[in-house]
Every structure is written in C-alpha cells, then in structure tokens.
Amino acid sequence: MHMANELLSIPVATGTLAIAAAGLGFLCRKVRRVIAADKLALMGILGAFVFAGQMVNFQLPAMPGTSGHMIGAVLLAIILGPHLGAIVISSVVIIQCLIFQDGGLLALGCNIINMALVPSYLGYYVYRIVTAGRFSSVRAYIGAMIASVLAVQAGAILVPIQAALSGVLVVPLSTFLITMIGIHFLVGFVEGLMTVAVLAYLQQLRPDLVADSLPGKVRLSRKAVLATLAVFAVIIAAGLSLLASDLPDGLEWSYAERPDQPDFKSSVSNQDSRISEVDDFQSKYSPLPDYSLRASKVGAVAEQEADVGAGWTSFAGVVGSLLTMTAIWLTAWILRKKQSP
Amino acid sequence: MHHAHIDKFAYQDSAIHRLDSRVKAIVVLVFTAVVISLPRTSPSILACYAIGPFAILVWARIPLRFVFKQILLVSPFVLVLALSCPLYDKTPVTLNFGPFHWRSSLGWLRCFVILGKFTVTMLALIGLVSTTRFNHLLAGLQRLRVPRLLVIQLGFLYRYIFVLIDRAHHILRARAGRKLRHLGFRAELRTAASMLGSLFIRSIDTAEHISTAMQARGFDGRWRTLSKLKIRRSDVLFALIAALFMLGLHVFVRPVLP
Q1: Structural domain tally of chain B?
Q2: Is A115:A89 a contact under the CB 8 Å cutoff?
Q3: Same structural domain for residues A105 and A186?
Q4: Model confidence over B43-76: pLDDT tens digits?
Q5: CA 20 to 30 Å from B228, out of A96, A130, A281, B202?
Q6: Three-state DSSP class for B134?
Q7: Taking a C-beta distance cutoff of 8 angstroms, is the pair A176, B80 a contact?
C-alpha cells in the first residue's frame, strides 16, 4: 500500500504533505499537553513493536506460498487511543520511508494519511461504537474485526483516488480501485483476525490493557467521535461518487493541469477501439485522466517522429551522461588507489 | 545483535557525510520534486539527472552494488505499476535513439520512464540516508520546526527497532524449531497471535523499565545534543552546486532533449 513518488503529481504531493504535516503538528501539540514524559518511551517502543510484529508471519489458507502479517494500526489505536496510535504509526511510516526506502519522499504525506491517520481514527471510532456500553469480550472482538477491515479498506481506497487526482493513471481508475479493494479486503480480513487473536491473548494475560485502563491513554468525547466520523463519511462518499459519476473531478483536474493540449480529442480519436467511447464518455467507463495524458504523449511523440534529429539528441544525452558517470567513478577510484597504499 | 543495518554507511566519514543534515535533506527533497515533475515521455533526460546523486554516492564511497540491491528490494510495487502500463496503453510510437529505431507502444515508454524516475529518486534518497546519521537528521528536523514530540518518538523508535526485531527473530526461531510442518490455519493463527501478544507485553514491560531508568537520570522529555548544528561554508557550497546542477539541467538540457 506504500504509495510511490511516481503515482503523484507535484500539487497533490504538496497538498497531502501539507495536510499530513498540519494534522501531525496539531496532534503533537494536543497530545503533548496530556501525556507525561514517561509515556514517550512507551510510544517509541510500541512503534518498534509494529516493525518487529510485521516479521511474525503465518501461512494463509488456500494460497500456498503466501503469508500474512499484521499492520497493527487498529491494535495500537485500541490500546493507546487514536491520538497516540496515529502518532506512533506515522512515525513508523516516516522511518519506513527514510531508513527502509519504502514509499517515496514526496509520497510521505499520502502515506501518512492513508496508513496512519485514517486507519487509526476510523478504526478506533468504529471499535468504540461497536463496543459502546458495558465491556464484553465478544463485542470487543467483533468491533476489532469490523474496525480492521474498514480501516485498511479506507486507506486502500484513498490510493487510487490520490493517483487519479494527480492525473498520472494509465490503468483505468475503476480497474485500479477494484483491484485495490479486492486485495485489501483480504488484507483487512487477515488484519482483523490477527487483531482479534492478539486481543484475545492479551485479554487472558493482561486484561487491564484491553479494557482500556492503560495509564496515559487519551480518550475522546462522544461529540468529537461523531464529528470525525461525519468527516470520514464525507471523504469516503466523495471518493465513491468520484467513481460512480465517471470522474468529473478527475477530468476537470486533468484539464486544469494541462492547458497546453488543445488537440485533446483529435489525437484520441485516431486509434484503437475507444474512439466511440470518447464521444459518450459519460455513459460508461472512461478513464479520463488517462485520455488527457495520452493526448499529451501523442503530441510529444509525434513531434519527435517529425524531427529525426531528436533521436540523436537523446542518444547524445544518454551516452554523455553515462560517460560522465564513468568518469566520476574512475576519478574516485584512482584517487582512492592513490590514498590507500 | 547482527543485522544488515540499512544505514551502516552513515557511520563512514567523507566530505559528504560532514555536510549539515538540513541542507542535505532539503536538497534531496527539491531534487525529488524536480525529477518527478519531468515530462512523462522523455526517458533520456533522466540519465542527465542521475549524474548528481551518482556523483554523491561515489564521492561518499557508498558501494554501488549495495545501492542497487536496495533499490531492487523496494521496487516490487512500482514494478507492478510500471508493467501494467504496456497492457493499457498500446498507442504505437516509433522511438528514435541514435542509430536505433524501434516500433513500440506508449505504454512501454511510460513504463520505462516510471522505472527511471523511481531509480533516480531512490538514488537521491539513499544518498541522503546513507551519508547522514539518523540522530543528526533528527536534530536537523528539530531545528526545522518539526514538533519535538514527533522527533523524540522517531528517536526512540529508531533506537529500539533493532532490539525488538532481534526479539522477533528469537521467537521466530523458536517457532521454526518446534513446528516442523504446516499446522492448519487456526493453529497457525493462534500461534502467531500468541507470539505477537507476548512480544507486545514484553515491549510494554521494557518501556516501563526504560522510562524508569531514564527518569532516574533526569529525562524530562527533552532531547539534548552535544553537537551544535551550524551551516558552514562547505554546506553553502554544496547547496550552491546542487542548485546550479538542477537549474543548469532545467535551462539548458531540458529544452534540447526530447
């Protein structure tokens, strides 16, 4: 689910980075007032636990060779509360980006939103709503299951939407979306099973952790719960309507992004079976960002074909770059040889 | 403890390693943004942009084999994405590359560009991480007004990742030694859950010990570092060279190369 740099355009990347930074900054300030210094170590180590926990894998049924592992966002949100959970998982995502190079630097904002902020809050609220009232372990397990599935799913749905907003999708959005939903339903299901099983284990050994009495846990008022859920509902509804209504937003976006292609229609209509669908693109599936993108590329390449010299320029560019790199490497090598003896 | 430390080369010493972490981080961020905003149909210009991070990696003596292994390790998601391009975009184009001409589809061109951008931005990111110690990076981030809570959280997390991964290895080895065959889904799930649960409880206990020990030594939620971050002349020079490199490519090479 880690987003790559290549899936994003600069405006979307900066926008999501700004949202994630603002959200994290707000959270840090809010949490800082509540927790004492002795909770800092706990948060850090539970972050490390998420890493270590991802190594504990187990075989999935029906699919030999594949194995599942836990992500842990919902578990941490249930035990630490959503604020601390969100900060811990965000820090995990940041370390994954910086130290393990998983997910790009520019995509960090998206990754924090998709994998930390949204799953933590959504998972926590769903869990709280299901387990409202007197604590019973069966309810807690059902709540954790539903929370995990929904939390993973919400994050996964956001990936294609962000890519579509960036206008970089070649794959039709609906295909991408359905693939992501399908895969992540499975991932969420496994996550839910694991979360429930771990909660059951903890219930036996440390019932104080599950029945949310971990000191320093930050809880929220009912009003805040409802308000946040409403916001999530709007976001997800917007995402779904984006899919349902043939992406008018994606279209407008891609137009706004590239005003430099006046020959949008003509270039599309000169190839393959989709010609007819361009005319009535509102009727069925039409990956619009894709079309506009295609237009841009056809234009560029057509120019390239007209200009025979272009091939030689790019050849010179690539060969020159490679030669430069070889020269740098050789120089460094010679210098090192001179130094070492 | 024996791990393939991902940032083991950060503890070497070179002119690049000595640069200020803030300058390096900002340069890499800007470089990534510039590369990502390149047009999506011109693979050849990426080779020019690769010179910069390549020079840094070579200068800082990071083994290139390690770098490319690392890139290969994190590539699967991008690879799937890139390889799905040729399936969906079959517009025929002719690619001219020096003496070679071949007919191909736009999808392949895009696939190639995505992989190229991925490689170049990863070169830059690895250049940053493997020439900067993580605590220096954190100190730099703190000076760049990243909230202190987050910086401390990252510091703790980084410090204990490898400790807990070690523990996870022990548990995994114990399971491998006892299990010997596939047990069926329910048993597998139960085993994995108990492993995770015990790891979790042990983590919480460790955290309690650590915070008691730290409080006994006067930890009040503030990170104090001995080294004073200072922008020196070499940092300014590095930023200037990087800016000239990117600007030069943008002004002189980008209009010429298709």
Answers
A1: 2
A2: yes
A3: yes
A4: 788 888 999 999 999 988 888 888 898 888 888 8
A5: A96
A6: helix
A7: no
Q: Do A10 and B33 touch (CB under 8 A)?
A: yes
Residue among B85, B167, B197 minimizing CB distance to A170: B85
Q: pLDDT category, A253, cuts 50, 70, 90?
A: very low
Inter-chain CB proximity B189 and A43 less than 8 Å: no
- The answer as to whether A238 is a domain residue is yes
In this complex, is the C-beta atom of B153 within 8 Å of any C-beta atom belonging to chain A? Answer: yes
Task: Classify residue A252: in a domain, yes or no.
Answer: no
The pLDDT tens digits of the residues spanning B221-253 come to: 777 777 677 888 999 999 999 999 999 888 887
Q: Which residues contact A30 (CB under 8 A, 6 or more apart)?
A: A83
Would you say residue A13 lies in a domain? yes
Report the amino acid identity of residue B124. A
Nearest CA in chain A to B39: A297
B178-197 residue pLDDT tens: 888 777 788 888 888 888 89
Q: State pTM to two decimals.
A: 0.79
- Same-domain status, B171 and B134: no
Tokens 């008018």 belong to residue: A248
Minimal Cα–Cα distance from A263 to chain B, Å?
Answer: 16
Whether B13 has a pLDDT exceeding 80, the answer reads yes
Number of residues that make up chain B: 258
If asked whether residues B41 and B72 sit together in one domain, one would say yes
Q: Which residue range is the domain that position B103 belongs to? A: 8-139+229-253
Beta strands in A199-334 (DSSP E): none
With contact defined as beta carbons under 8 Å apart, do A268 and A276 qualify? Answer: no
Phi-psi region of B3 (alpha: psi -120 to 50; beta: other; left: phi over 0): beta
Asked if B136 reaches chain A (Cβ–Cβ under 8 Å), the answer is no
**In a shared domain, residues B109 and B22:** yes
Q: Work out the angle at residue A133's Cα, subtended by the Cα atoms of residues A43 and A82, and round it to the nearest 5 degrees.
A: 20
Residue B166: closest CA among A49, A93, A69: A49
Helices (H), A35-107: 38-53, 73-80, 82-98
- Report, in this order, helix, strand and coil percent for chain B, each rounded to 5: 70, 5, 25
Q: Token match 């007209």: residue?
A: A306
Burial call B216-235: b when 16+ CB within 10 Å, e when fewer: eeebebeeeeeeeeeeeeeb
Does residue B90 share a domain with residue B65?
Answer: yes
**What ipTM did this prediction achieve?**
0.86
Q: For residue A139, is it within any domain?
A: yes
Q: A311 and B101 in contact by Cβ < 8 A?
A: yes
Domains identified in chain A, total number: 3
Q: Which residues contact A257 (CB under 8 A, 6 or more apart)?
A: A9, A11, A167, A292
d(CA A167, CA A307): 28
Tokens of A120: 């933590």
The answer to whether A37 contacts B219, with C-beta atoms less than 8 Å apart, is yes
Name chain B contacts of A290, Cβ cutoff 8 Å. 88-89
Q: Which residues span the domain enclosing A139? A: 5-244
Give the position of tokens 């090479």. B253
In order, the DSSP letters of B168-220 are: HHHHHHHHHHHH-S---HHHHHHHHHHHHHHHHHHHHHHHHHHHHHHHHTT--
Instruction: Say whether both B61 and B127 belong to one domain.
Output: yes
Asked whether residue B18 falls in the same domain as residue B93, the answer is: yes
